[in-house]
Amino acid sequence: MMPLTLNRPHPMPVFYDTHAHLDYPDYANDLPDVIARAEAAGILKIISIGTNLISSERAVRLAEKFPNVFAAIGWHPAEAPKAPADLRPALRELARHPKVVAIGEIGLDYHHLPSEKPEFTAADDARYKQKQADIFQQQLEVAAETGLNCIIHQRDAFDDTLAQLKPFAGRIRGVFHCFGESVERLKQVLEIGSLVSFTGILTFKNGRNVRDTLAATPLDQFMLETDCPYLAPVPYRGQRCEPAYVKEISEVAAQVKNCSLEELSAATCKTAQEFFPKLRNQQPL
Ligand SMILES: [Zn+2]
Ligand SMILES: [Zn+2]
Fold it and tell me: Is 176 exposed, middle or buried (0-12, 13-18, 19+ CB in 10 A)?
């Protein structure tokens, strides 16, 4: 792997993968190769996202091992039932790490509810949603205390997620990742000072709505991500996704925004550096 130096101009437009799950077992056998391919494709920084405390700790270890990997720490709403009563002490501890750039992914996810199974009732759904809201609240508090921004995951829960984030606006910002909502909802996100990020869905034949939303998003208000191992862009759709594929996502994004790759690179990297100030902590530890 070629060492990177920041003062040498890069021969191609560079991008960041602001949302990857590098700690997943999908990469257990070839992670150094995955990271080398990202560098070769010009994807110079990768944020590995935590989904519970163990996954968050693994993300931190990866950030310690690979100079261009950074970590976000958090507990995913779909895993809420397994969360401890109080997540805050463990998160505060992890948040101090120089390469922990954000709290995430956190939020609300109502896509699957307990009552889908016959043994559960509406009361179980209410308890599940309450537990999600409780841990989301705790993590927003840690974000506000530590001055870290948040990576927001929401699915079928946009209004509740926005309502819970709103009281924190002005202290912390969120990036609504894998954004697939309407232009109207995009405006609601931007109004509270938050941002959005877009995945490989931009390249899908049926991704028209997402492209329309990107077209309406100001050039300095969004970032790019893979959400790998999920959502591989065309022409890799259906395969394991990896950070190098931000390249394919960026090509479609530049077409949608009607700008050059260089302009898209400058805008999205600047947005990410401002949103995640600790991304500047490039050196290995
Ligand atoms: Zn997510
Ligand atoms: Zn994710």
Answer: buried
What one-letter code names the amino acid at 93?
E
Residue whose C-alpha is closest to residue 94's, from 58, 131, 45, 138: 58
Kindly identify the ligand whose nearest atom is closest to the C-alpha of 77.
1
Question: What is the Cβ-side half-sphere exposure of residue 240, based on CA atoms within 13 angstroms?
Answer: 11
Q: Which helix (H) or strand (E) holds 147?
A: none
Query: Would strands 222-224 and 195-198 be described as parallel, antiparallel, or unpaired?
Result: parallel
* Cα(1) to centroid(ligand 1), Å: 30
- Please tell me the distance between residue 150's alpha carbon and the centre of ligand 2 in angstroms: 13
Q: What is the pLDDT of residues 69-100, one digit of tens each?
A: 999 999 999 999 999 999 999 999 999 999 99
Query: Band of the pLDDT at 280, cuts 50, 70, 90?
Result: confident
- Give the distance (Å) from ligand 2 centre to CA of residue 242: 13
18 Cα to the center of ligand 2, angstroms: 10
pLDDT in tens, 9-46: 567 899 999 999 999 999 999 999 999 999 999 999 99
The SS3 assignment for 58 reads: helix
Instruction: Tell me how far apart the alpha carbons of residues 189 and 174 are, in angstroms, rounded to a whole number.
Output: 9
Q: Tokens for 230, please give them.
A: 């999920």
Which ligand is nearest to the Cα of residue 161, counting in written order? 1
Spacing, Cα 37 to ligand 1 middle (Å): 23
Only one residue has tokens 């401890």, namely 84
- If you measure from the C-alpha of residue 21 to the centroid of ligand 2, how many angstroms do you get, rounded to a whole number? 6
* Nearest ligand atom owner, CA of 47: 2
- CA 11 – ligand 2 centroid, Å: 30
Please give the distance, rounded to the nearest whole angstrom, from the Cα atom of residue 105 to the centre of ligand 1: 6
Cis peptide before 32 (omega within 30 of 0): no
